[in-house]
């Protein structure tokens, strides 16, 4: 393990990236533990930070830490390795706090514990996956072989053209895969090109932009997309949600737009109306007119074996 760390991380110059990776994961785990304890109303050192009636979200502290770490990383020379690693740790902690409330920034609403709040956990998982692949030395497709010569120039124009062409093709396949609604396949395909080919060829997900543009409602491709979604995608989504809730807690609160939605005018009027206001008033009968039985009004016979009763016309006395 030590040899792997020295070869893959230390000797390869990825020590600041490793510090960012560890700081990001540790900060995210501690943040989720803290907010789950606060939500469960458990006695804990940390509580919600408030300035009067204003609740200050931890994304604010994340932005400050990212600013401090980024400026520190640019200001300190590369010769001071310790300061560079410290800047990476600070930046990783701030990035974890910001991405943990990514859904709040996306929707501009406090959706942390609602269904929309799962977008924050998805963003954190994507950041961890991409950083882990970069830490292992796996580069995005199309960038291998573009290292300059010892004199600092690229003297292989044919190879440059080949790499540029492959990069363009792979980016087109990645965009096509993302348009088909396959986010994880498109992101992982940047490092494994075979996934991009599979994602671009196979049927799109229902509701994705590609499905709305290309699949007619009720067509064979639309039915195939729904079948694949129900047969393969839904079990994977349920497993992903279970893992997310195990790590980050359950997102089961009512969204704010539904919680604060005012009832319609008809419902408010019905609530203010008295109990018997909706019943029709009894009209006064004219002279000689008889009130029909309820069974006759409903279309049923008053007694079995007889015809439906009809009101008699008034007599002229």
TrEMBL record:
Residue ranges of the region described as Disordered: 263-317
Transmembrane spans: 15-35, 56-76, 82-107, 119-138, 158-179, 186-204
Keyword field contains Transmembrane: yes
Biological source species: Actinomadura rugatobispora
Compositional bias of kind Basic residues: 300-317
Keywords: Membrane, Transmembrane, Transmembrane helix
Name of the protein in question: Integral membrane protein
Superkingdom of origin organism: Bacteria
């Amino acid at each position: 393990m030590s040899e792997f760390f020295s070869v893959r991380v230390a000797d390869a110059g990825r020590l600041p990236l490793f510090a960012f990776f560890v700081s990001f994961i540790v900060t995210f785990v501690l943040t989720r533990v803290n907010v789950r304890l606060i939500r469960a109303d458990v006695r804990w050192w940390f509580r919600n930070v408030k300035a009067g009636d204003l609740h200050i979200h931890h994304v604010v502290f994340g932005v400050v830490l990212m600013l401090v770490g980024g400026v520190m990383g640019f200001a300190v020379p590369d010769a001071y390795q310790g300061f560079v690693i410290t800047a990476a740790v600070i930046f990783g902690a701030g990035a974890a706090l910001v991405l943990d409330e990514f859904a709040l920034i996306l929707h501009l609403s406090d959706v942390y514990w609602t269904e929309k709040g799962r977008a924050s956990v998805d963003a954190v998982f994507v950041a961890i996956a991409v950083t882990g692949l970069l830490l292992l030395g796996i580069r995005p497709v199309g960038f291998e072989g573009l290292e300059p010569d010892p004199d600092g120039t690229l003297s292989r124009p044919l190879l440059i053209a080949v790499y540029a062409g492959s990069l363009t093709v792979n980016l087109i396949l990645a965009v096509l895969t993302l348009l088909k609604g396959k986010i994880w396949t498109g992101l992982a395909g940047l490092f494994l090109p075979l996934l991009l080919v599979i994602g671009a060829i196979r049927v799109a997900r229902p509701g994705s932009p590609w499905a709305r543009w290309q699949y007619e409602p009720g067509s064979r491709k639309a039915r195939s997309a729904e079948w694949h979604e129900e047969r393969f995608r839904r079990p994977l989504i349920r497993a992903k949600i279970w893992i997310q809730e195990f790590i980050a807690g359950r997102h089961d609160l009512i969204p704010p737009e539904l919680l604060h939605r005012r009832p319609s005018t008809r419902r408010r009027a019905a609530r203010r109306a008295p109990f018997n206001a909706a019943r029709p008033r009894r009209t006064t009968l004219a002279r000689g007119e008889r009130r029909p039985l309820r069974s006759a009004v409903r279309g049923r016979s008053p007694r079995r074996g007889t015809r439906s009763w009809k009101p008699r016309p008034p007599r002229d006395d």
